[in-house]
Design goal:
Blueprint: H1 2-7, E1 29-37, E2 40-49, E3 54-56, H2 58-63, E4 72-73, E5 81-86, E6 91-96, E7 110-112, E8 119-131, E9 139-148, E10 151-159, E11 165-171, E12 180-186, E13 191-197, E14 209-214, E15 221-226, E16 229-235, E17 241-246, E18 253-259, E19 265-271, E20 284-292, E21 298-307, E22 312-318, E23 324-332, E24 335-341, E25 346-354, E26 358-367, E27 370-379, E28 386-394, E29 399-406, E30 409-413, E31 418-431, E32 434-446, E33 451-462, E34 468-478, E35 482-492, E36 497-508, E37 515-523, E38 528-539, E39 542-544, E40 552-560, E41 574-575, E42 579-582, E43 585-588, E44 591-596, E45 603-606, E46 612-614, E47 619-621, E48 629-645, E49 652-657, E50 663-668, E51 674-680, E52 685-689, H3 690-706
Parallel strand pairs: 1-6, 7-47, 40-48
Antiparallel strand pairs: 1-2, 2-3, 3-4, 5-6, 8-9, 8-38, 9-10, 10-11, 11-12, 12-13, 13-20, 14-17, 15-16, 15-18, 18-19, 20-21, 21-22, 22-23, 23-24, 24-25, 25-26, 26-27, 27-28, 28-29, 29-31, 30-31, 31-32, 32-33, 33-34, 34-35, 35-36, 36-37, 37-38, 38-39, 40-41, 40-44, 42-43, 42-45, 45-47, 46-48, ...
Length: 707
């Protein structure tokens, strides 16, 4: 199993707070782990784990549907479904296969494209806040999502004070020339103007970084992991939230684990590499933006790239500092190199090499009279240490150097049934002959019963000033009604700790129509402020608390295929009450499913009714659009009786599809040799004794062997 090799490097630490590495015990260790099946907890069960394997008590297997009377190896769960074991959380996640219906294994028989109105409004999301210290009674935004011709359309209006703005965004995933066009407030660049691109994955245009957008409501707390190691926790203050990720690591796999204001948890996984910036061979990619930034200055930025080969692309454009540049990027397998020329401003060179265990990133540049060198070395082993060195100097005499060592630790505190992710670091800095030593640690602790804590502490020792200490912490508790959160920020500049800000917030999500939140904050000067927030969405399912802007929506219905052409015409009657499955969603038609992933295809299966059967056992949709409502009608065929009489009872007969030769059903004659089948009206069938089918099969095999 994947976790076995990873955890062989890091054993369970001692009691709470201890950081001493212990040797692997000779005997098995026992864990009391929560067993979660399809998202529902089935209780806690004892897991005994040694070097070779983990064994689970028989009670867990009975909860999984296996009639076990003795402990069995944990890895056997994968034989009856999909399992994920998170030792740090002491949780086993299990998703059993749906063997009773067999629909998971059915291959689509046809592809049907849902219909989407050219002009349609799907939903309206809102996020509105009132602050007691604000001159405006209400601040926030309302975003309407719909469809205009072949584009998905978002129209966003900001409300209150400096948040007053208008933005519209057109998106067409299948358009080769313009995939995204945004007018008004361009969220990605923070300017008022326009932007357009034909890239599927937007890139910042810099060698070792990429910028992604997180589409969770403002107020969401997100724990960020890179390559499985905890990096930081951020609180989103905008929607979308721009987050910059670094690409100079051996495994550029980011996990964003979100706790939304309505109490739901969500996760997004992003994998990026430098090679993702390469343009298609022989084609142009572009990204352009122009407008005014908030201080009133105009800004024009963007680039055009051309793919010379599968490994080499050239770029030309203007960066965020409005410097014109030309660059060439080479990226292949585990190495990459980019050389850039900025005219009179200078030049830059970036390089990257990585394998399964190490990654090495380097940069040298001479830009705007600043010379800079930096090197990052990362190791994906025990504690995942990373070393970073950076130096910078200018023509005016400014010089700085910095070296940082950071490690990552994960420990389980068994007596407390809690897990902690720790990332300590030590940094040595020198700026203009002044020395600084910085010690710090970032911590994330998950505790039972919905408790979670994060803390960042830093101690800065300076040769020219008082030593400085900084602390930021958050403690939260999830409960039936919602979530309580306390945040505290404090600094110590040598005269004792002084509170900078503290806040207490409650989020109420036990209401399907919306999310309600209230918070109280106290600043360093003692001023207090109170905020009240309501957020949610209004769409085809009425008022909901889940934003719909970045979800695809489908209306599914079934019809009686009276003319047996395999399609649903407008004049053919609807059939209601049919069970159906869209991905992991099980519904009864007619149904509106509003939590689907946009721009991907789905398999859809429907059941039958008295006298009706599905025309297709499963169909595949085309890629679902995000803005409009995807409407899909699936045909149900009428069933006819196929009956007859043979010479005697007890003869096994089969109903065969003449067009394919497939056996649709079997039965044994009785009541004087009679048989009775129910067959779809659109299929041409015949009834054949099973013995003749077997004889025919034997003759075919004999003929093949003879030939």
């Amino acid at each position: 199993m994947k976790f076995r090799s990873r955890l062989s490097h890091v054993k369970v630490f001692a009691v709470a707070g201890a950081l001493a590495l212990t040797a692997a015990p000779a005997k098995a260790e026992d864990y009391l782990m929560t067993f979660v099946v399809n998202g529902q907890s089935k209780g806690e069960y004892l897991v005994s784990r040694d070097k070779s394997e983990a064994t689970v008590e028989a009670a867990l297997w009975r909860a999984a549907g296996v009639n076990a009377t003795e402990p069995l190896p944990l890895e056997r769960l994968n034989g009856i479904g999909t399992s994920k074991i998170v030792w740090s959380e002491q949780t086993i996640y299990f998703y059993p296969r749906q063997t009773e219906t067999g629909r998971e294994l059915i291959e689509p028989e046809a592809r049907i494209e849902p219909t989407v109105a050219e002009y349609d409004i799907k939903s309206a999301d809102y996020y509105l806040t009132h602050h007691s210290e604000s001159d405006e009674s209400l601040v926030g935004s309302i975003t309407a999502t719909g469809r205009m011709a072949s584009f998905d359309l978002d129209v966003r209006a900001g409300i209150g004070n400096h948040e007053n703005y208008f933005s519209s965004q057109w998106h067409d995933e299948d358009n080769r020339y313009v995939k995204n066009l945004e007018l008004g407030r361009v969220q990605r660049y923070g300017l008022d103007g326009l932007s357009l691109t034909n890239e599927s994955h937007l890139s910042t245009g810099r060698f070792a970084t990429d910028q992604i957008e997180l589409y969770w409501p403002a107020g969401t707390r997100v724990d960020v992991y890179r390559g499985g190691a905890y990096i930081e926790s951020v609180v989103l203050d905008s929607d979308p939230y721009q987050y910059e990720i670094e690409l100079d690591y051996a495994q550029n796999r980011y996990q964003f684990r979100a706790v939304l204001p309505d109490g739901r948890t969500d996760e997004r996984i992003v994998e990026r590499s430098v090679s993702g910036r390469l343009a298609p061979v022989g084609r142009l990619n572009y990204r352009l933006a122009a407008g005014q930034i908030p201080d009133g200055e105009s800004l024009a930025t963007g680039y055009v790239s051309y793919g010379l080969s599968n490994e080499v692309s050239i770029f030309g454009g203007r960066d965020y500092q409005e410097r014109t540049y030309l660059s060439t990027l080479y990226a292949r397998d585990n190495s990459s190199l980019e050389a850039s020329w900025y005219g009179s401003s200078g030049w830059g060179l970036n390089g990257n090499w990585q394998n399964d265990h190490f990654s090495l990133f380097g940069r040298i540049s001479d830009l705007d009279d600043y010379e800079q060198q930096s090197v990052n070395l990362n190791f994906r082993g025990a504690f995942r240490p990373s070393i970073q060195y950076t130096s910078r100097s200018s023509a005016t005499g400014y010089e700085s150097e910095e070296a940082t060592l950071r490690t990552y630790h994960n420990l389980y505190m068994r007596p407390l049934r809690s897990s902690a992710s720790l990332s300590p670091y030590f940094s040595v800095r020198e700026r203009n002959s002044q020395d600084y030593n910085v010690y710090g640690i970032r911590t994330l602790v998950n505790m039972p019963d919905g408790w979670q804590a994060t803390a960042n502490y830093e101690y800065e020792s300076r040769s020219d000033f008082q030593n400085i200490q900084r602390f930021q912490g958050e403690l939260s508790k999830r409960f039936g009604l919602g979530r309580l959160t306390y945040r505290h920020t404090a600094n110590n500049f040598g005269q004792g700790w002084a509170t900078q800000q503290q806040s207490f917030r409650v989020n109420v999500w036990n209401w399907d129509a919306a999310t309600l939140s209230a918070g109280v904050s106290r600043s360093a000067n003692g001023d207090k402020s109170v905020s009240l927030t309501i957020s949610g969405s209004f769409g085809r399912n009425g008022l909901t608390r889940i934003p719909q802007r970045n979800q695809a929506m489908m209306e599914l219905s079934t019809c009686r295929d009276t003319n047996a052409d395999g399609m649903c015409q407008d004049d053919e009657p609807d059939v209601t009450g049919i069970s159906a499955k869209i991905g992991d969603h099980e519904v009864i038609t007619p149904a509106v499913v509003d939590s689907l992933t946009p721009y991907r295809r789905y398999n859809v299966q429907v059941g039958g009714d008295f006298g009706l059967s599905p025309r297709y056992s499963a169909v595949e949709t085309s890629r679902l659009v995000r803005g409009g409502v995807n409407q899909l009608r699936l045909p149900l065929s009428e069933i006819r009786e196929v009956e007859g009489q043979l010479d005697a009872d007890g003869i096994r007969v089969a109903l065969v599809d003449k067009s394919t030769g497939n056996v649709l059903s079997e039965q044994t004659t009785e009541f004087g040799g009679w048989y009775l089948f129910y067959a779809p009206a659109h299929k041409e069938v015949e009834v054949v004794p099973v013995s003749e089918l077997k004889l025919s099969h034997v003759k075919e095999n004999s003929g093949e062997e003879a030939s």
